[in-house]
Amino acid sequence: MKPNEHAEEAQASHVERGTTALVLGVTAVAMYGSPLFFFFMPPLIRNFPVYLTVPTGICAIVFGASDLYHMRGDERADRRRAWAGVALGTVTLAVPITLLVALELALQR
Question: Within 10 A of 98 (CB to CB), how many other CB atoms are there?
């Protein structure tokens, strides 16, 4: 193996870090729109992806934080994908928490 091949593999690993978090975050946000599609399906099947948004958002945050931890101290690493995954996962968790707080406040009145 040539010395340059090892350097190219290391460069590829820096580029690919954070992709899992980004994909999970985008998937979690997209799952909120699933009831708007597939009108011909029964409600239980049509709404099933909505039940998976919170676990998928948590996974996006965990994978993004893990990738950010592994990239610290590396100037060549591109942290944008990991930060985007963390941000989308946070948005995915903020929506149900906001709805639960609003529902609780409405029921107290």
Answer: 10
